[in-house]
């Protein structure tokens, strides 16, 4: 994703942009809008991802039933390289957002986040 941050030089048509993606940490670039593709792009910052150590964490949406038969869903995060088939037990941390729902079906709703 590329976002315009500022006009640097109106006459030369140079702008300051911020570029980031799911796999690329945000950095600033000068873009010459007269040139196409990356030819008009000059990287200004070289910020490293401070979260690189968790970049390969396994993330999956799971569904489960509560004791009162309400269907719920959540996101399970497993360490990078963890083999679920080994049966190795891991510590568990659960965070539940306290919210009231009008019916049991709504309580199990899932708002997927691609990141």
From TrEMBL:
Query: What is the protein name stated in its UniProt record?
Result: Uncharacterized protein
Q: What is the lineage of its organism?
A: unclassified sequences, metagenomes, ecological metagenomes
